[in-house]
Amino acid sequence: MQVYDTPLHDVKILQPRRFSDSRGWFAEVFNTSAFSSAGLPAEFVQDNQSFSAKGVLRGLHYQLGKPQGKLVRVLTGHIWDVAVDLRRNSPQFGRWAGFHLRPRNESGELELLWIPEGFAHGFLVLSDSAEVLYKTTNLYHPAGERSIVWNDPTLNIRWPLEELGGASPCVSGKDAQGSLFESAELP
């Protein structure tokens, strides 16, 4: 497995090795030993999967008390995935990075995104639909669930809305009521 740095410290792009033959291909997407050797968490406690239509924007989500690290993988479609550093002691506090994720990147390699605890996470579906699977390092904790509004002026995330042909993203009522970064209850 190849592990690549991103503009945000501790957020990583992972490329599992694929083994191909005339039947198709096989890849080991998660291995406790390989993750430990790479300095990544080796224990995940929950898998989540979502299906979303084009233009759906989920996020920016995070949890207090029981934060979740997330290993994100797109099974079908194309998303633009965003991580925001909420770690107050980080030199990158309040910074974000966005990543185009598909089942395989433009080079044909599998790609996963590792987002550690202490980050907000969200994504925008750019294809007709997308299925996203992510493993988490902690169980869902409803009492600690928080959200920052996707279009927060302080974060100024440059969502690729032009890829929606001028349409506004579709967000849940709960996400539309997310906090502003400046007043959000942060970890």
Q: Report the C-alpha radius of gyration, rounded.
A: 16 Å
Low-confidence stretches: none
Compute the number of helices: 2
| Succession of helices and strands | EEEEHEEEEEEEEEH
Number of strands: 13
Shape: globular
What class do helices, strands and sheet pairing give?
Answer: mainly beta
Portion in helices = under 10%
Q: Let me know the average pLDDT.
A: 96
Major sheet, described briefly? Answer: 6 strands, antiparallel
- Spatial order of strands in the largest sheet: 1-2-10-7-12-5
Instruction: Tell me the CATH superfamily.
Output: Jelly Rolls
CATH third-tier fold name: Jelly Rolls
Q: Approximately how much beta-strand content do the residues carry?
A: 35-45%
How many separate domains make up the residues?
1
Distance between the termini: 31 Å
Q: Give the CATH level 1 class.
A: Mainly Beta
CATH architecture, please?
Answer: Sandwich
InterPro entries: RmlC-like (IPR000888), RmlC-like_jellyroll (IPR014710), RmlC_Cupin_sf (IPR011051)
EC number: 5.1.3.13
Enzyme class: isomerase
Pathway: Carbohydrate biosynthesis; dTDP-L-rhamnose biosynthesis
Short description:
The protein has 187 residues and is mainly beta. It is built from two helices and 13 strands; from the N terminus they run E-E-E-E-H-E-E-E-E-E-E-E-E-E-H.
